[in-house]
Amino acid sequence: MTLVEKIKGEIKLNKYDIVNIRRYLHENPELSSMEFETSQYLKEKCEEFGFVVEDVPGSTGFTALLDTGRPGKTLGIRTDLDALAIEEDPYNLKEKKKVVSKNPGVSHACGHDSHMTIALMAGKILKDLADEIDGKIYFIFEEAEETGAGIGPMLDHLKDKGLDGVYGNHQSPSLDVGKFSIIEGPAYAGCAGVDFDVIGKGGHGSRPDKAVNPLIATAHIITALNSAWNNQLDLEKPVSLGIGAINGGQAANVICDRANVKGTLRFFDLEEGKKALDLVKNVADLTAKTHGCSVVFNDYTRIVAEPVINDENLAKQVKASLDSLFENPIVDSPKLWISESFYGYSKLCPSIFINFGTRNEEKGQASDLHTGKFDLDERGIDCGLGLAIKFAIDFLKESDK
């Protein structure tokens, strides 16, 4: 029996657990930094499989170690744990979903339940196939990917583990089941937050001259930012500006004393992202002063995530592993403007982050991420699991570092 046949046979043998673990996690989502029951459930499974579990201090995150006892490389396989504050629609785009969140207002609308299932079951199956590998595998269960709160503590925990590579994956509703996107180099954008208050002086709507209206200043700030974006940033290093919320005032005849602006910047060049964030601060401050207002920048106005840059050698290795599993599985994909805390692992060692398809348009499983109707085809999990296992074996086959 070939290795590929063994892997596919193990996935088929463990199908019941794969489906039921994913469905349990989907029905019991928890918000970022509150993944207490999720973490406990996964720890118990890892201990059941015989792994050495270590908590990450100050975090719900943890690691689980599979040690072959033989010298070799050390690989990390990472998953995220958290869900989103999104009410789940019991129907996808066409039909009733198989499982729905039991936690009102919270759902795995980004598919992290599938990522956890892959990491956990890859561990179980790799333990069964341990004769095929040398070295160690750390299964990395990271808290709070959506807010970025878990990556710092996890990196501190892993910095002395001797990792030679970290593998991660994300399901994609834009890729059909069985299809994968593996990008060499820049893959996911970095993100900077924008959150500031424009401070004026409130008053009666009948006498705007006796007030200092922060709404007027805010409107001019937004217009000035659009002009600055076209004239002060490098056109060859694009940065997107997305204003998501402007809040201020409640009544037609009352001039408020404060307005708030929220948004994000996305970029693939970190230095240009920092430059753009400084530009936001400068334009907001100077424009507000022109209108007699001041600006207070809140904590979220900072670099939230750096770009995910895939190691090109690892990308080639993953493609080779994938080609041995499936026929014509790779789909060309542009780099993605969404952000991911996975960027942090490249600070420790070479890292690779891939996308696997969970789209089934016929079954209505095609809604975008972060939507109430989001649903995935569970067959895609089998494909993503197969690649994680095959790449881990291929990566660890050579015992010499």
From TrEMBL:
Domain (Peptidase M20 dimerisation) ranges: 190-285
Gene3D superfamilies: 3.30.70.360, Zn peptidases
InterPro entries noted in UniProt: Amidohydrolase, Bact_exopeptidase_dim_dom, Peptidase_M20, Peptidase_M20_dimer
NCBIfam families in the cross-refs: amidohydrolases
PANTHER family linked: METALLOPEPTIDASE, PUTATIVE (AFU_ORTHOLOGUE AFUA_6G09600)-RELATED, PEPTIDASE M20 FAMILY MEMBER
Listed name of the protein: M20 family metallopeptidase
